[in-house]
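Task card 7
Instruction: Convert sequence to structure tokens.
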Amino acid sequence: MEGNNNDNTLEVKEGQQAEQKSNRDEILSWVKMIVSAFVIAIVLRTFVFQMALVNQISMNPTLYEGQMLMISKINYLVGNPQRGDIVVLKDDVENKLLIKRVIGLPGEEIQVQNGKVYIDSKELEPDYTSFPTYASTQEAWNLSQGEYFVLGDNRERSRDSRSEDVGLISRNNIIGKAVFRIWPLNKLGLLK
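Output:
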């Protein structure tokens, strides 16, 4: 009988050890999954995409305050901004993000005269806006390599490359391209 009792005690201890190992393995599995998800989220946000909330009127009527956009960072890891792209950029003066449209590319001369934008002496077509464009302090900008000229679509109410505190935008300050509007749902879709 004593041998039987020891066998039962041994089986209980082995069962408890197996259960503890199973619990430990399950906890370890959960920790690995949470850490993996966290690492993937950081990689995606750093190199692939991020969300941005429009909190300015400078891109009306294309974008309105309160709209949520998906910003693609990967577009500019493999290429450069193109004319017409809606981009998110760092504003070092006010330490915030701005959303603007790329108008001038590296090596071009941008002129603003009589309410129109000219690139290398040719009128910008399409103009991306129904507002006239006026210069604030100067009427011509020569872009060096790695510099971009950006404007808001609401040319009357936009702090952009025409203002001295924003000026020409360095390629390093462009975070990504606004590619998709995700809010509000009735405006869901690709941006142009």
